[in-house]
Amino acid sequence: MKRRIQIAEDGPVQEPMLPLINIVFLLLIFFMIAGSLQKLGPFEVDPPASQTAEGQPEDTIVLWYGSNGEIGIDDLTGGLDRLSSMLPADYIGRPVEIRADREVEGAKVVTLLARLQELGIEKVQLMTAMQPGQE
Fold it and tell me: Is 85 left (phi over 0), alpha (psi -120 to 50) or beta?
């Protein structure tokens, strides 16, 4: 049985909107799945350049080290003296990734590494940014 669409003489023709809505939702779902989101830190850092890059394990603790000496883990911020209280309770055995600003002096990073060693952290990675033009 064929269905006929009756067009009213006095009003505009309305196209079915369902296919357009379906396409919009499919695109939305595609970009939600295909896009990758990165958790932002408590403050902005500008990492030094690097020649190589590696991924991080999922249980990695990300430690932000700002140019003014501020340290941040998750949503907590403070100085080197508050480091032990900012670490999660299960930090022993988990790797720590340091995201330090390029303006931080090397001696301050060494002091941070010594403090992490005192707290029992055995594996530390320093995060760097890839140089432009590298893949």
Answer: alpha
